[in-house]
Structures are given as C-alpha cells and as structure tokens.
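Follow-up to my post from last week.
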Amino acid sequence: MTGPGPGAQAGVGDVAGELRRLLAATTGRPELAATTLDTALFGGGVGLDSLTGTLLLRQVRQRFGVDVAAEDLNLDALATLGTLSAFVCDRVVSDQIVSDRSVNGGA
Amino acid sequence: MSTAGLVKCVVWDLDNTLLRGTYLESLPDRPPADPGLASVAAELGRRGIVHAIATRNPPEAAEYAAQATGCVFVAAECGWGRKSEALARIAAGLDISVDTLAFVDDDPYERAEVGAALPGVRVLSPEDAAEAVGWPEFSPADVTEEARHRAGLYRQRHRRQQAEQAFAGTHEDFLRACQTEVTIAAAGPADVPRLHELSERTSQFNSAGHGLPAESLRALLGAPDTDVMTVRLRDRFADDGLVGGCVINRQDREWTVPLLMMSCRAIGRGVIDSLLTWLSGRAAGHGAAAVQVPCPVSERSVPLRLALARAGFRAAADQAASPGRPVSGRIVFRSDLGAPRPALPDWVTVPGEA
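User reply:
Got it. Predicted complex:
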C-alpha cells in the first residue's frame, strides 16, 4: 500500500469526528458526539438497530462517497466507531490515489 | 414485476388538494375537505394503504384535515422546507422505503421538486389521484385483517416509540417491559393470504427480493423436506398479528432458506433476531451442519444483512468484495452450526417444540 497521495488530507481522526456528528444527527442523540473509537456501534455500545444502522450508512455514502454496504459484505466495518473510521478513511485515500493516477496518466 | 410497485403510504398536500381552498387565507373560516379525494383516501385506507400530510401550514392544519376528511394520518410534516425532505422523514419514521410513497399536490413546482429528488415516488396531481383507486399500484391483491388495521398499528407504534424514549433501561429490558410476545409456528392454509401479502409488501426485509404467489405458498405447505413458518408479534401496545415468515428447505445437512421476510413495522422489536436464532437452533437439533440464506446485496437489503451479521451469518470467503470492486447481485450468507449460539429470548414461544 502506498502512502496517502498528495490530495489525501482526511485522517482517521477527521473522519471519526465527522462520523460522530453523523451518529448524533442520525439517532437524534447529541451525547453520541462524544463516542470513543472503541465503542461498539451495535448492542451495548451505541445501540444502533437495523434502521439507524441503515440511515448511518446512507449518510456515510452521501458524505464520503464510500458505499460500505457494497464493499463490506459482512458489515464488519460497523463493529466500532474506530473500525468504521478506518474503513472509510482507507477508501477515501485509495480513491484519491486512483483518481490522482488517472489524472497523471491522462496528462 | 407488477406487484413490486405497491404504494404503502400516500402523502397529501392540503391547500387546494385535500382541502378545497387555502387554510391560512380562509381563516377564521376553514376550507372544507374535497369530498372526491376524501372518499379516495377512505377507499385506499380500506385497502391497507396509510395516509400522511406534507403541508406548508401550521400543525393545526393537519389536525383540522383529519377532522374534516375523517382520515387517520400516521404522520404530518407541517413546515416550509422542501417537500422531498418531508417525504424522506415520513418514510424514515414509518420504516418504509420512499419508493413505496405516493405524493399528491396541486402545485406543479412541488410535484417537480419531489419527482426530481425522489424518482421512486409516485407523484400525482389531484386529478390523477381521483383515479388512483383503479391503478394497480394502489390495488393490493389480498387485503388481509392486518392490512385493515394498519393505520391503527402505525399509531400504536408511535406511542411505543415515545414510551421507549422515556424508558431508562436497555432495549431488551424495554421489549420485556412491553410484554413482547413472539410466536413462531408452522404455517397453515389460513396463513397463505397474509404470507403472500407480506412477501409482496416487504422490501427491506425480504431475502428473496420478490414476492411469492399464493399458489406457490400453498404448494409448499405440503412439500417434502420443506417448512413454511409464520412469526406473530404482540405486546401491551398492540397485536401486530403475522409479521414475518420463512420457507426452509431441509436438504441433507445443509438447510437453505429461499425466503426470509419480516414486516418493516416489526423492526427493532427482536423479531428477525429471534427467527434467525430459532432457525439455527432447529437446524442444529436436526443434525444439520449449516444454514444458508441467499440474500440480494443492495442498499435496500442492508437492514436484513445487519440482522444476518448479528446472528452470526457470514458471506463465503470467495464472494468477498475488495476496494473499488463492490459486490452486487445475490450472495449466500451461511451460519456454521458448530459455534455456540445465543439462547432464544424467553419471550419467544414455539408451540409444539419443547
């Protein structure tokens, strides 16, 4: 894996911050803006259910252009806020590398 | 397929649509209901289609419209934002897809805005709506007991949601406090119309991705190595009746589930998790090594995949996706029965099984 391309600026921390905001907005629970990276998104942690989980994935796709549901069949990315942040960050960075390369290749 | 486009909820504009006149401009008098559209709404209600309001008026207008038309509205969006956003909120609140909404408005601008933002919504002028009772998307083949009570069930659901917001314990404690009862039982001939209706109305929780004709279901009832199961749900707020079901093929040591479905209304109430837990337990009890559920991979099936993942089902390794190469189509999710399984919650009963 190559390092982040010149256009890649979003770090895991930035992505996690934005995901916290989306979590709070999707669930209507402002306290989720303080969710820690190791908090489970389902079950005892944030307690997402099928509905709020689906809404969150939709928001992620709109905000980051990353379709978690299409790329992660078993939805393991939704284990914790940290795993989801890493998944999104990884896809955002690799997409930018791909698009940087295609720009360079066309020049 | 023709039945895939059934409308579940009609969202009505009020001014010069469901009401004859403009609410705010008519004050202190208030405009009467449009009698033609009010009777269309009543007929659609008898078919199990529910109604909601999206209006640029204060909330009192929605209360007045319910009184004037005699309709039950399961949701009302009163405000000055985009109507497409109002429709999206209505669909999210009812746990249904926006593609199952119809929208009636006299204003061509509003119709164009909703049509552009939400292409799956059936957008109608009041003149169109007057004829809607004759259209197939407003004509479910079977209208069951569950369907006739649907509007009331949505309102009870709203009360349950408010109770949960005020409840301090865990979600599981809340389900217990509601006296939730899930009953899983073999289907009989009397269950066929409702199972058929469910198979057509379910979109998010339907592993087959399509409906199953009543004749096919009837034939499956007596087929060898096949089980057709029903799931019923009730609690202290409401008796939701038959909300889910599945078809099981018991082949050798691999059980396959060609159809697993649940009404969106039952989302978040432990039903699909109970059914999957029961299914794995029963298969293991019969000596099966694995249970497989083929499931479409699309945005619409995400809620079902979340439930499968929670119940320990995994996509086979050779079907996995990689970055930039998303998977689409149908994928087999599989649960190997060697691993320990969670116990069935105590509110689930299975008549005929110990």
